[in-house]
Amino acid sequence: MTITLYHFPQSRSLRVAWLLEEMGLEYTLKTIPAATAREYAKTPEYQAINPLGKYPTLIDGDLTMVESVAIMDYLMHKYDAGPLKPDVSSPDYGPFTQWLHFGESGMGMYVIMLFAHSYLLPEEHRSARIAEWGRAETHKCLEFLASGLGDKDYLCTSGFTAADISVFYMLYLLKIIRQFDDAPDNLKTYFDRLRQKPAWQKISAIEA
Ligand SMILES: N[C@@H](CCC(=O)N[C@@H](CS)C(=O)NCC(=O)O)C(=O)O
Question: Which domains are assigned to the chain?
């Protein structure tokens, strides 16, 4: 079976690439340069595999999947995730599942609203009210995450898991748009700890 990941640097495909590295799976990375990613997403070639025109897309044999966290879940169930996914019998399993999804479903909308209305959109299309709403809701998410982390090194008591990869991506986006400076101290230390991971260093160094 050949795994192929369509990757656009700085996008959510980083989550999947990081997990593939940590799991030690063989895969082909199709990196689409950031400058042409939107155009490439509209081509018949890419539309045939992802009509939404988003990244990531994962192909595993006959299977094509979108949605970064769903892809992570799939990979961890299909292949040996080792300690990256606590066993269902472990007390960590519930928190693990919560944080894995919180990274996208819980935080994603607020972080993206803040991202879009303070950074991504042309200034004339930005709304200060939406940015403020996104900032306030993101702040709540960060406080919640910080209390879940407490004084642990990672979200699960067992150690580093895929849940850390999932939430890290949102912290990374906040860092890019300079909205992470007021984050709780334990989250800042956590972010610095995660970005030292060799697999993150490898995939985040891939040029756009
Ligand atoms: N919920 C989806 C979101 C996918 C998504 O919005 N990806 C962004 C990059 S992070 C994208 O492809 N944006 C390009 C565009 O919207 O044109 C996931 O987690 O995979």
Answer: 3-81+200-204 (3.40.30.10), 84-197 (1.20.1050.10)
